[in-house]
Amino acid sequence: xxxxxxxxxxxxxGAYLEDAEGAAIEVIYPATGARIxxxxxxxxxxxxxxxxxxTRAQPAWAALPGVERGRVLRRAADILRARNRELSELExxxxxxxxxxxxxxxxxxxxxxxxxxxxxxxxxxxxxxPLADGDFVYTRREALGVxxxxxxxxxxxxxxxxxxxxxxxxxxxxxxxxxxxxxxxxLKLAEILTEAGAPPGVFNVVNGLGDVGAALVADGRxxxxxxxxxxxxxxxxxxxxxxxxxxxxxxxxGKSPLVIFDDADLxxxxxxxxxxxxxxxxxxxxNGTRVFVQSGIKEAFLxxxxxxxxxxxxxxxxxxxxxxxPMVSAAQLEIVLDYVARGRxxxxxxxxxxxxxxxxxxxxxxxxxxDVTDDMTxxxxxxxxxxxxxxxxxxxxxxxxxANATEYGLAAGVFTADLTRAHRMAAGxxxxxxxxxxxxxxxxxxxxxxxxxxxxxxENSAAAIAHWSELKSVYVSLNPTxxxx
Length: 485
Ligand SMILES: NC(=O)c1ccc[n+]([C@@H]2O[C@H](COP(=O)([O-])OP(=O)(O)OC[C@H]3O[C@@H](n4cnc5c(N)ncnc54)[C@H](O)[C@@H]3O)[C@@H](O)[C@H]2O)c1
Ligand SMILES: O=CCc1c[nH]cn1
Hints:
By secondary structure, the protein is an alpha/beta fold. The protein has 16 helices and 22 strands. It has helices at about 45-65, 65-80, 85-95, 100-105, 105-120, 155-170, 185-195, 210-220, 230-245, 265-280, 300-310, 330-345, 375-380, 395-405, 420-430, 465; strands at about 10, 15, 25-30, 35-40, 130, 135-145, 145-150, 175, 205, 220-230, 245-250, 255-260, 290-295, 350, 365-370, 385-395, 410, 410-415, 435, 450, 455, 470-475. The strands form 6 sheets. A 7-stranded mixed β-sheet has the order 14-15-16-13-12-18-19, with helices on both faces. Strands 9-8-7-10-11-21 form a 6-stranded mixed β-sheet, with helices on both faces. A hairpin with a 5-residue loop joins strand 5 (about 130) and strand 6. It is an enzyme of class 1 (oxidoreductase).
């Protein structure tokens, strides 16, 4: 297995920075369990250097015309696309996701974000509000300042870019902390932004565990924190951000419903259930892990689903023929196996899968449970692995009520040929991101994010600009100012 050790553990002030003082973090290739790199957790000096660099760089970066900031982002997008294969291979090594996925969903998604927000940067403007007697107000959309991004391990390149692109477009600078499980890819994004012309300090990466993230969030120079992670971490980070009255975006977990009515195109609905449960080996926040199937089509659905699931190709993730990779880590594999055991113990019917795959690395079969009831643990808790739960329903009202009966509210999907019903369901879902007759498509043009415990704020689309900037109003009087005395 190749050595994927980066030039150094951190990227600060436009250059790689090593700091052997910090605890060693071993990077494990999930497909084999082999160590492929070692990085060091950031010491206090590295955290300080990164925050100081971001603070120094911010005023000049914000003062550039938007069109110039945008040009840097768009150049970075071009570099990402030109190096897509190399970056996709690194994403595969970092996460274990198969190259057949990473070639189309990671550096390319990051490039889309940089291109989109690069294009938007020059259009981040205020408005003119006319008032009585010629007075008027104009608004200025201003940068927040130094922002902190903290990432999860499932999409290390995409998560870094979905935060960096709108943040930088608005004139902010950023210190980004990747997940300690996948510390390699964000360093490449930093290197590429420098190559594209981003001044030193505009985008910095510090690696480390939760304590490094906590130190960044607590720092008084930081104006905004954007976390992608679990609900328990979100609670801590949101609370810490509130101490400093910082802006916050929380992109957290989910237990999203996918509702399939008996008039749906069955093959499409099964494709959506497969994509929404097994893509990235089930490690996607918005996955439709509660698949509600109308009872009339349940057995046909399960039979065809099992048939198609048997076609998954588990194998070397670097082989483009592979369509299902391992879990990201031994710890995540154990969590998922434990949920499978609980599903069995609580009486769900195992349709397919359920076993650890006996080979080196962290492998599990794609798993489908049927006859799942709403109270079962596997129907209530986020598993974050390739475990689909299929639940039966009879009526639309029942399906909607049960779909919404969760503390989460990240995503939801509906499959039906009845478009009136589809829009009724989409309006009724208590979720931030919804799909009709498809699932899990997340183009940069569409807002992405959750409601309820799944989060606060939105990434992507023009809506993200409001979350990475502050509005100032300027009242201009064309009249003499009067006073009562
Ligand atoms: N909504 C989304 O967009 C989205 C996308 C991907 C993943 N996720 C969620 O992420 C979770 C899986 O990722 P994970 O296991 O890496 O999540 P996690 O919550 O364990 O960790 C996320 C990040 O937070 C850091 N962290 C931990 N404690 C911290 C603290 N006290 N202060 C600051 N930072 C801290 C970690 O080091 C890591 O970088 C799942 O719940 C998944 O649904 C959400
Ligand atoms: O993991 C959550 C974000 C996402 C959804 N689809 C691709 N990435």
